[in-house]
Amino acid sequence: MDYQAVLESIVEELRPQLGRAGHVASYIPALARVPATQFGIALRTCDGVEAAAGDSATPFSIQSISKVFSLTLAMQVAGERLWARIGREPSGNPFNSLVQLESEKGVPRNPFINAGAIVVADHLVAQCVDAKAEILGLLSDLCAEPIAFDEEVASSEAGSGHRNLALSHFMKSFGILDHDVATVLDVYFHQCAIRMSCVQMARAAGYLCRDGAHPRVGARVLSEQQVRRINALMLTCGTYDAAGEFAFSIGLPCKSGVGGGIIAVVPDRLTLCVWSPALDATGNSLLGRCALERFTARTGLSIF
Amino acid sequence: MDYQAVLESIVEELRPQLGRAGHVASYIPALARVPATQFGIALRTCDGVEAAAGDSATPFSIQSISKVFSLTLAMQVAGERLWARIGREPSGNPFNSLVQLESEKGVPRNPFINAGAIVVADHLVAQCVDAKAEILGLLSDLCAEPIAFDEEVASSEAGSGHRNLALSHFMKSFGILDHDVATVLDVYFHQCAIRMSCVQMARAAGYLCRDGAHPRVGARVLSEQQVRRINALMLTCGTYDAAGEFAFSIGLPCKSGVGGGIIAVVPDRLTLCVWSPALDATGNSLLGRCALERFTARTGLSIF
Amino acid sequence: MDYQAVLESIVEELRPQLGRAGHVASYIPALARVPATQFGIALRTCDGVEAAAGDSATPFSIQSISKVFSLTLAMQVAGERLWARIGREPSGNPFNSLVQLESEKGVPRNPFINAGAIVVADHLVAQCVDAKAEILGLLSDLCAEPIAFDEEVASSEAGSGHRNLALSHFMKSFGILDHDVATVLDVYFHQCAIRMSCVQMARAAGYLCRDGAHPRVGARVLSEQQVRRINALMLTCGTYDAAGEFAFSIGLPCKSGVGGGIIAVVPDRLTLCVWSPALDATGNSLLGRCALERFTARTGLSIF
Amino acid sequence: MDYQAVLESIVEELRPQLGRAGHVASYIPALARVPATQFGIALRTCDGVEAAAGDSATPFSIQSISKVFSLTLAMQVAGERLWARIGREPSGNPFNSLVQLESEKGVPRNPFINAGAIVVADHLVAQCVDAKAEILGLLSDLCAEPIAFDEEVASSEAGSGHRNLALSHFMKSFGILDHDVATVLDVYFHQCAIRMSCVQMARAAGYLCRDGAHPRVGARVLSEQQVRRINALMLTCGTYDAAGEFAFSIGLPCKSGVGGGIIAVVPDRLTLCVWSPALDATGNSLLGRCALERFTARTGLSIF
After folding, report:
1. What is the Cα–Cα distance from C72 to C86, expressed in whole angstroms?
2. pLDDT for C102-120, tens place per residue?
3. Which residues of A are known catalytic residues?
4. Which of D28, D101, D162 best tests the A interface by mutation, with the highest count of A CBs <10 A?
5. Does the structure's ipTM exceed the value 0.90?
6. How far is CA C281 from CA B153, C18, C23, C285, in A?
């Protein structure tokens, strides 16, 4: 299939809609000032074929997409232990809700809501000499380019992160977090502040379509079963309270972030990253979602 | 692959666990007296190859599995209109919960929770001359054998259905149901009371792995896109509040019922039905779930 | 104190606001067509002194005020047993909420929310030969005039009562109601449809300020302790989700109804009834509430 | 009335139950080690008559009773402004619940749940040069003895206060708190850590039964209306999720703390303080509650 043509046609079709609808995340200045009129898309197949179009080389704040990689690292270093303090069910509630956390004694429903990702970060603090460095190391190795934090974003997150502080202290009150809230959130706020481009992201996520094999060197990142489980979690919990809608209309495991990026996995075929900063009411990239619907409609790719 | 050998080995392995754990549904006598020590499994591939083992020819009460077929019929007769009054998101709550219904103004989260299936039945009442007969007609045609209601179960459901009456009147108070509660619930209680065997069920569900094509005659039951959407809904919402867990550990679209049956779909490959009456704490067949985990582990089949 | 002058001055002051704000209950036609521009007020002291002003002789639909009298009757016939299936706590939620009922296994928080009053009606069905007749009998005896149901309102309530049907079936599913939902709701819908004037109501409620003694004949209606408990329930739970606000700004036990009536008790002094059909956002009579604030400010009467 | 005899008889009657039931608060060591077998009671009438029995001179940790006095101080210094960010309704939920806070955009239901008292503390930080000193100053002046913080308790509260940190950051995320979480909680944790005896407490609360007049010097602490409002709040919200039960069975405005103290107000008559460390399931002093029931039964004092 001529993926390059498909991606270019999608960019052409969506260009007129750029900046027309949706809202760029505005809770911190560094995100609020990102121009809404950007759109990039990139993919990489299992065999290493790449295609890209639009602003695919522009770095963006990966935000919650980082939860896939912190979970990957935690699976490597903590193994099954991880699941003693995190569930695997969709939440059916806003991603940073405290209600469910209260009724379930502080155990987050899954690793892709904020509370769950904070528990994952707690595991990384426990198992890594330098959790922040290891997350960057994993990503840099996966996409073969140096990856870095945007320190301005990280410190803005920390400054406006009262909801995440509330979640963390709440879990701490249930004994769910082992380490200091400040230490754990420092890791969490930094992972959210990583900057990558669509091309880098499509490469880095490659192991998710290759049964856990490293996207380039062929070494094992995770086992086949572990990768299937991450893909299952992405499908059921990867796009906030729109996961059912994404499964229904797109039919691929996806993980999105409020920076406007979304990664999608076609098992045994390819990984894809799309980015456009304006978000819809569910917090997912509005044009990113349109692009994924067009991509699956045009290629017939779907897990169902 | 020698599916017959796989199913037989699963039956052999699980036989010692029969009747050891779990509880048969006890809310109506006709279900409560079903012996817990039964186990059946059957599959049918896209190409018409069949395999079966254990009590695969014993009819059981299909209960909530019927929601897949009433939804199929509603998609045929009502089309996209259907989604105006039903969502497509996992509920993150018990299957007959009123809480979410209240906060979302009476609109059920998806067609596989009770409230959603009752709205589907309301559509069938609107569009069909005889909704109950058409459901039976659809199933009989799909599996090429006459299928019938268990009238004792239907009337027991009606007699003990205060929770479903509550859900229905609650939705009625929000203007979500068009028809009389009694008329709509008569359809709903009857569809739950259908009796089928694993073999019949694996055949009837065949269109779900054949992109919507009829399992035998090749006519179209639903469009490819409609079937993908049903499979997506089964994966995200098909097994009560264990959908995430099923996706994580089994990785196939499934729909279960409190009668102990579960159907599973491997797109482009096969449909499978397993049945064992004893349920786990989430209301899914305990050994049915074990069997599906073994089946996917052994065959490597998974959508992820 | 010259109560007649106080009531007249309140009527004068509030007259310009009649029909200016608030909304008449519109869920049934017989309530919706009540002119909003009516206002009546009446009181009766422990010693039998009466005062009245405005439309104090016009009958109105007493609606939830009836809950005080059905509770009184249930206390007479069922005694302490009553409290096995009803709580005594404010609900902190809308008066017909199902959420709390779900989390508390079908036991209503108090006898003044709809669910609780339905359980009270269930007790009356159990203990009375003809519950509806006994409620009318109690009221007729208390105010020394024949009191009747408005059958049009009663049958409209039944026709539009899906929320109450939902509550009842929900409680039935928890085993909280002993009798048929239809039988119990027939009592409940009728008690809500009683018509009385402010003057009649101030008389009928007289035992609440007389330590349980009959307002005229001196016989005992309830014990002193029972009356204190009803007054306590009125203060904490009598005005929907505005009970705290009423206690804060008025400081008297009150019970309101969506017909626009409110009764208030000054223990050892007097009972008062005010009526004006337009309701505020909390479902309480807007001018009724203003009138009570003026009354307590002017007379200095308050339990605090 | 011979109050001294009444209090002594209550102490005698309850003595055999000391240490038999209930549990001392154990979330911080300084509270956990308080012997359960203590019981004290004291009252002071409007006219300055005092009575006391049992361990009435033993200081205890006043905990949430402090919320009455911090509210009093906030009413003095902030006036009506206070109510812009705090409601006046009973919560119908556990006292430190986050659920209601979420559904109501961070505005606490009333000033006696933890969240509400933290907002009160935020007002004190805004209006006072040294909020902690002014709280102590108010109490010392009211009871004419120097009152102090238990610094061990204050620092233990801070160390184990993750739930309160969660509440505070959560409100901060809604913009409900003006000052730093740490600064506000320093005030809050200290006010909870005040130590007073029953005798001191009965004296200090005296203005609540004297229409706002200072218990000794006759100066005005609050206006009559302000005091009525505090009494109303105590009645509807003063004893966690047992406020309805307290109103029903005791019939007086009360405020309790997890240290085992409870104050009660008989308007125009007296204030009373009872203390016994073992708590019932609702977090209120088990024997304290029994003592209050006996007191009102014996004296006939009740606001209803």
Report:
1. 14
2. 778 889 999 999 999 999 9
3. 64, 67, 188, 240, 258
4. D162
5. yes
6. 46, 16, 9, 9
